[in-house]
Amino acid sequence: MPQEFRCNCPFTSALDVLGDKWILVIVKQMLIEGKETFKDFIESEEAIATNILSAKLKLLEEVGVIIKTKRPENKKTNLYLLTEKGLALAPVLVELATWSDHHLRDIHPTVLDGEGMELLRNDKAAFARALEEKYREKLANTTYVP
Known about the structure:
Layout (H helix, E strand, L loop, with lengths): L9 H9 L4 H9 L6 H5 L7 H13 L3 E6 L2 E9 L1 H4 L2 H14 L11 H8 L1 H17 L6
Antiparallel strand pairs: 1-2
Helix pairs in contact: 6-8, 7-8
């Protein structure tokens, strides 16, 4: 089923795909945490319901942000991988983390801090590139059935 858009505005169109509270969480889990199977996502601390996860993974696949495939040695388990379109969201995630770091600490003082956030604060573009490069290396070393 093709994605429906409310209007022709590029901002609104992006939000029609990415504006759900789970979509960018799933992309973040894949890009930063290395999650790639349904079980990986279900076991995460964000605690997404299975029916919602199924629907969001299907949407991400339909719009080309991820692909669903299998490992050659395990045909039962679906493997979800970011596409180039999905990897292009790295700077968006970095900007959201930066915004959170600057504007939510006063109301959420336990939000993650540390070495990773220092790297992000010092050079957002380099941090985003490093995420993308690390993911591409992972893809290069992942055997899957295209």
